């Protein structure tokens, strides 16, 4: 089986990462929801339990000598004297018991301003009046606040560990789940390469026979025109087969690179398209520095990419227009641009135009972009060389196709 291409490997890894991220996100949502529910119920239960304790203590207290554990009792007698249980903090002693409302309430006695807020006492109170006596039961809620903070810390640690474990499990499951995708992509590309090789020979024979028939002198005009179209169609199909083979070959020979002079390549392509440009009445020029501009790449692939860009520009340029090949170096990169003043393009359609077998709007001659890999293959070639490919333009204002690549080391 063919080895997976780097693009396919990135696709598989990205799919596995998405599965892992989605799993972790789902678990995180569940953990947060459960933790919030547990925390809410715990705090609520603590509060209700505290209220129950102080209510019972205040309503059943006969004197201040035997309070329940953790509860402080203060009893104000009818004559104004106050009896307290043992160990009542000074802050509670300073409360004005007569001013407290009956029933449940809360109080934070004044303390030294330098005292940390976590250590400032806060009390749940219940005030009950019996036969002229006022009984106040107070429960310090600081200790329950400590328990709540410990619970939050424990839930946070457990939640983070759970999310991390879920992400790891999601990554393992995702890798196993998308592994067949990588194999399927490799098989698909192998099939394309094999089929293209098998089709090349019979297609070449078909094209040659069509050319020979078109050269006969005893043909009527209609038959001659049909044969001319057959020759053009077979040539177009041959170009598609060549594009498919080149696309498959780019990843089969990732290290087969040599130093390529982009300036010389641009001049050679311009010379090869000069007759076509002359017949169309289009001025084809080149702007390049006199010295070689070198990149590391596959000459055949780079020529194929530049051929596609120039062919596309000529097909979309009116008679009297111009197409310019520009070679520049800037910011440590090599820029090769094909600029035309033809039909232009819709900026919103640039992404679609680089898809395989895309067909753009009709040209001034009534033709659309030719069927084939076209700009998609250009993008693939450029990416295989570590570069970028961009399209820019406006409708009826020309277009610029730019290849940016790193220079040869």
UniProtKB/TrEMBL annotation:
The keyword Flavoprotein does not apply. Its main location: membrane. Residues 194-409 form the Histidine kinase domain. InterPro entries: HATPase_C_sf (IPR036890), HATPase_dom (IPR003594), His_kinase_dom (IPR005467), HisK_dim/P_dom (IPR003661), HisK_dim/P_sf (IPR036097), Sig_transdc_His_kin-like_C (IPR004358), TCS_sensor_his_kinase (IPR050428). SUPFAM superfamilies: ATPase domain of HSP90 chaperone/DNA topoisomerase II/histidine kinase, Homodimeric domain of signal transducing histidine kinase. The chain crosses the membrane at residues 15-43, 151-173. Its EC number is 2.7.13.3. GO terms for molecular function: phosphorelay sensor kinase activity. Pfam families: HATPase_c, HisKA. This is histidine kinase. It comes from Catellatospora chokoriensis.
